[in-house]
Amino acid sequence: MIKIDKLAVVDPSAEIGENCVIGPFCTIAADTMIGANTHLRSHVVVEPHTTIGTDCEVFPFVTLGIQSQDLKYVKNTVTHTEIGDRNLIREFVSIHSGTAEETKTSIGNDCAFLAHAHVGHNCEVGNNVVMSHGATAGGHVKIGNHANIGGLAAIHQFCQVGEAAMVAGQGRVIQDVLPFTIADGQPAHMRVINKIGMERAGHSSDEISEVRKAFRILFMRELRLEEAVHEVSEALPDSSNVKAMLDAVSSSQRGLARPETATFEINMADD
Questions:
Q1: What is the pTM of this model?
Q2: Long-range contacts of 52-55 (CB under 8 A, 24+ apart)
Q3: I need a labelling partner for 71 at 20 to 30 A (CA). Which of 104, 114, 137, 216 fits?
Q4: Residues 258, 130: one domain?
């Protein structure tokens, strides 16, 4: 049974799944879909061309699929927002739609967006991602599965944060953070391998060791990046995790958030 509060405004064309709860003062626009068992507590705004998956929990004063803040947006352009299943979306979170015609912002499954987090236009957010209080992703940012973005961290447009990577609280990301690493600082630099994050994502001790070895070759030796990439690919040809790191290196548009010299001693002692 669908429960829609008498103080909610739901467009007749909106598709509401079974057992959904739409709380008071929610506004659900036309051309929207909300999956079964999703709960919108109150004061939630769902804009046109937005899809929300099943079993999501959306707290008050959230805006989903609202118009891009990109100044290049052309009025009446149709863009989309896709939000997956089992996502937790806390108070005042904003997730914006795409900018160019028929483009989209996409969110995976099993994510947690804590209060005041923001996902900008055309972002791609994977599964099991955590964006802590006030974390912000600018337009066209890509965030990999199991990534963790700390409170008040800010990610610049077009940057990539890889799988199982972590950005520390108040980190200012202006270049790409490779999978399985921790980045910290203003601007943020990769510091070490995210051992705990990899363990939580189900990676074995051998897989963690492979990634640590790759990280040291890439950044802890006096090698040109091209030489380091070649050495890593020769040393660890069968590691899918290392391949993901090298793929991120080759696809980087903004360059890498390389470690500072001060982090070398930390990594050499990290066994």
A1: 0.95
A2: 52/83, 53/83, 53/84, 53/85, 53/86, 53/87, 53/109, 54/17, 54/85, 54/86, 55/85, 55/86
A3: 114
A4: no
Find tokens 């290196």 and name the residue. 249
Encode pLDDT of 77-129 as tens digits: 999 999 999 999 999 999 999 999 999 999 999 999 999 999 999 999 999 99
pLDDT level of residue 268 (50, 70, 90 thresholds): low
Same domain, 124 and 208: no
What residue numbers bound the domain in which 220 lies? 199-268
> Residue 264 — pLDDT band, cuts 50, 70, 90?
low
Of the candidates 80, 132, 134, which has an alpha carbon nearest to the alpha carbon of residue 107?
80
Tell me: do 111 and 7 sit in the same domain.
yes
Q: How far apart are CA 133 and CA 155, in angstroms?
A: 14
For residue 47, count other CB atoms closer than 10 A to its CB: 21
What whole-number distance in Å separates Cα of residue 181 and Cα of residue 188? 12
What's the pLDDT band for 267 if we cut at 50, 70, 90? low
Region class of 19: left (phi > 0), else alpha (psi between -120 and 50), else beta? left
Looking at residue 240, which CATH number applies to its domain?
1.20.1180.10
